[in-house]
Hints:
This protein is 48% helix and 15% strand. It is an alpha+beta fold.
Amino acid sequence: xxxxxxxxxxxxxxxxxxxxxxxxxxxxxxxxxxxxxxxxxxxxxxxxxxxxxxxxxxxxxxxxxxxxxxxxxxxxxxxxxxxxxxxxxxxxxxxxxxxxxxxxxxxxxxxxxxxxxxxxxxxxxxxxxxxxxxxxxxxxxxxxxxxxxxxxxxxxxxxxxxxxxxxxxxxxxxxxxxxxxxxxxxxxxxxxxxxxxxxxxxxxxxxxxxxxxxxxxxx
Length: 219
């Protein structure tokens, strides 16, 4: 065990180990409810045919390649978790059996390691595609505007945070920010009122919820 730890944090493998630690922390945050499952999801949808994109080059070609590896079909962090785990394992084994501590060997290993990780992630996640498609098709959009939420992560008008909304005894997590004009900030545990969804952005604008102030305004 000690030998594995020494190898993992050796100069040849430390970058992969750091990425793996981040992945483990991400899943721990998901488990304890401090982060939304789709927090790092990226929209890879394109309006052109994937096969055409693969030959077209440019941004469309890149998106086509990403679709080939199931990005856009499976949540981003699910795929990257497998890629990073595979790359870490490949780096450990390659440097243990073939590496000589050479910087050139470390650089030469990056691309093959990434390609192997992507291919393994594609094979592993392919059976999961119907499951995630069914999950997405079964989810009806929720209009959070006007609802109360409770801050899970602190928020300002420049720093995005997260909040939970309770609907039918279900805890739903959303990304939130204070309005630009607001100089207020909210800490974890504070209650807020959801004002509206920011146009073309993956978060909602909120304001501090003060029941007595709202009662005075209503009166």
